[in-house]
Amino acid sequence: MHLIEVKNVEFSYDGKNKALKGVNLTIEKGEKIVFIGSNGSGKSTLFFCFNGINKPQKGEILFNGKKIDYSRKGLLELRKNVGIVFQEPDNQLFCADVFQEISFGLLNMGVCSEEAAEKVDNISKEMEINTFLDRPVHALSGGQKKQVAIADIAVMEPKLMILDEPASALDPKHKKIVRKLTDDIYKRNTTVIVSTHDMDYALSWADRCVVFDNGKIIADGKPEDILSDDNVISQANLEQPDVLKLYKNMLKSGIIKEKKVPKTISEIEKYITDSFQA
Prior knowledge:
alpha/beta; Rossmann fold; 2 domains; 6-stranded mixed β-sheet; 4-stranded antiparallel β-sheet; 11 helices; globular
């Protein structure tokens, strides 16, 4: 049984221009998927369909084999299992302090205050934000707000967690922290989707890559196959990862011989070492 199944979904915000155009997609339990595409290509629109914020005008979405129930009770149950971390944390955070913010979703789900406090304590320690649980949310830095936004969703232990541009506008330190948190969440047996414009991160992190362009999926497969395809990169107005640019240049110059497409710089370094030792 698929975790998510999208069948011929169409969606429009204004009833005229389609943000999604007949999208078909399946997501399996335990996948690490990266969604890439230019701004406005339809990625976030589809994410909002996954947890019921958007309701398709055509087609249907199934979660764990069942059609999404758009009643209040049905959506509450869906959002326990499908969580989204917005690109801009200020669009997600609204409570007075960090503790209230992280506990809000749990309490809304009917978790008692004692259990909620324990879960907040555990997740805040895991995500290294326990030192500022009593701080006002508005007083946090951009990176800290992103950490809290992730904790907001992770504390509810969803089956699917979607992070929309989680490292955008962050300094290198907080990018590293957020990416570690993403890996930690995946290790909790959570299926993870990340939307990003960082092609090198997409290549090195994911085991599947979905490319959007103009409301449609134009490619879906292994990142090393998708991101080395010049036609896909050109159609979606993307930049090829620096790792793959370097790899192709080294092949042309004869420095290395063709091998398995690398996903990281360290793999290229090994290819170079092997070529000199041959």
